[in-house]
């Protein structure tokens, strides 16, 4: 690729330190911000690019989120896996990629998703947090009432 072609493709500037979440399923960047607790605002500089061309995605589109001066912790990466299973987490240090890791589905998730069963103990006033067994990509089962979430997990994010 020629230098001018690469420059024409650059949509968001490089960051010195922080995290780049690449290959987010198109249309889910705002859900990633919600999961990370920055949808309502943050002091960090956050760049969001949505529906950009992707050769790797089946839809041919992807989203990208760049968060300056913040490295994600494993629990945050587990949350991102729920809505962006093909995402790649790039840790940037001094403008270079220091780590590049695909997200991995956790076996169990807690505190992230609300059970769709209104009668579930996790939806009561009891001091019980939500907890789901991950059965497959985009399929979760509540450990308390065994309700299944098998589509639109983003709708149940806490």
The helix tally amounts to 3
End-to-end C-alpha gap:
43 Å
| Low-pLDDT residue spans | 1-8
Indicate the overall shape.
globular
Order of secondary-structure elements: HEHEEHEEEEEE
Number of strands: 9
> Sheet with the most strands?
5 strands, antiparallel
List the strand order in the largest sheet.
2-3-1-4-5
Arithmetic mean of pLDDT: 85
What does this structure look like?
The structure is a single chain. The protein is α+β, with helices and mostly antiparallel strands and 158 residues long. Helices cover 15% and strands 33% of the residues. The protein has 3 helices and 9 strands; from the N terminus they run αβαββαββββββ. A 5-stranded antiparallel beta sheet has the order 2-3-1-4-5, covered by helices on one side. β4 (88-93) and β5 form a beta hairpin. It is globular and about 50 Å long. Mean pLDDT is 85; it is low at 1-8.
